[in-house]
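Help!! Second protein's tokens look totally different from the first
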Amino acid sequence: MFTERTSVGLDVHARSVAAAAIDGVSGELLQARLTPSFEEIRSWLGKLEGPVAVAYEAGPTGFGLYRDLTSAGIRCEVVAPSKLQRPAGDRVKTDAKDAIHLARLLRLGETTPVAVPTESTEAARDLVRAREDCRGDLMRARHRLSKLLLRHGIVYSGGRAWTGVHDVWLRKVALPQLGAHAQVLTFDAYYENVLATTARRDRLDAAIAEMAADSEFTALVHRLGCLRGIATLTGFALAVEIGDWHRFTGSSIGAFLGLVPSESSSGASRSQGAITKTGNGHARRLLVEAAWHHQRRYTIGKTLRDRWDLAPAAARARGDLGNRRLHARWVTFTQRNKKPSIANVGIARELAGWCWSLAVLEED
């Protein structure tokens, strides 16, 4: 229930902030154009009839304003933009109108706040996302190099690409086949980019492994590692991307990650489509990749045993149960001739539930 006298909506941008305040007693609407300075925003809020509650949309400006207002004793919500109700017939959108709309929704209790991470979680999340960006950069760098060679009919057929053997082939076989000097310079530029990006990825991997071994996320990473396909990098990324696992249940976390089918049903008809792909795309990709590991026959090898040795007995038992269940689901999908890519998404959705069960295991 809304208990503050004044509700404030802020439309926050990099260089300006549109503010609107609604007095719940007098009904007066106050508007202002502010700078992004936290001190100026607090000063303007201090002139309003208190107590005051503030809301602004989650976006590229981050959570600094939330932390500053909260530390000053002002209730603040960072709301999810995708969950805001918009008038269907409204065709005029301005910063001032957005601020007023936020203030009204806040007073009515119709906003959906996002989970604001702690500063340490946000720092770890930045590191994980830097590694994800580096992965994408490396993929594009490799594509540029391989497609350069493909345009000139040079194709590697010696097994898996981007291994030590493939690297020798690039330098000693592929490069001499490029005739023109300009093509050699192009190869050198692309190859150098691949090497530099690979080195950057390796440095980030080492930093993540070091943080995962000694941080507030260490115990959680060890528990998640009891599942196949979730090693240190994946477990740490899931831990920091999802943050507070207790917000969800085993069945709701799949919907949060966009792994449930979209639906358009009315009356007696029910139509389901592709997955919604809402929520955190990075965590969703990690789970989809991890789900492929459960397609193969389940055996407890040295790598998995080493990860189990770091986890408590209850996590090992639950991880073993999850691994058996997920492989059995793969077998069922295969027997039903389910398309592998579709079946894998179903496994990823269930894998998200098993990850949740391990994440909250500590309080069971």
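Here's the second one for comparison:
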Amino acid sequence: MVAGGIVGSLWEVWEKRTAARPASAAGATGVAEIPSDMSTTSLVGGGLIAGESLAALSVGIHSLITTVL
């Protein structure tokens, strides 16, 4: 988990440094800024958490079925 947090933080710093347009020009283009909870890092992290939860649920259901039968 620590490594994921470090990689996520470094990714966000890298994204901010490589931004092609200045912050003042962002409003002039008409492109809305996305909230921080919809960033690529946040969505990938949430997807990994959801995937791991579904995998654990599948293993639990499989274990239950094999125990009952």
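Reply: Different proteins will give different token patterns, so don't panic. The CA atoms of residues 4 and 45 lie 8 Å apart.
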